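[retry 2/3] Phosphoribosylpyrophosphate synthetase: previous attempt timed out, resubmitting with same input.
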Amino acid sequence: MENYQTMVEALDGLKQRGFTLDFNLANGVLHNSSENIVLQPEDFSICEVYRFEGMSDPGDNSIVYGIRSDKYNVKGVFVNAYGVYSDDISEELLKKLNTPD
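[retry 2/3] Phosphoribosylpyrophosphate synthetase: success.
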């Protein structure tokens, strides 16, 4: 796994290595709007995880996930805040994100 100093570096590095789709949280699943792909927790695996803490603002704490779906033959990224500003995630998805494959 790479050692990135910033979230932007991590996103750029992952993209260069084929993690090209952006996933967002939508109703307890991960969704990519450009390809209209919906990933249930069982549909993907977590390849890489990077945590970043804001230097002056705790609200800047984020996690970048590099994910792969063999079901859809795609790789992409999911960015989520952690701490006070974390998104409302289903228990099943939270378990998946906290247990890298």
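[retry 2/3] Phosphoribosylpyrophosphate synthetase: The longest helix spans residues 7-16.
[retry 2/3] clearing retry counter.
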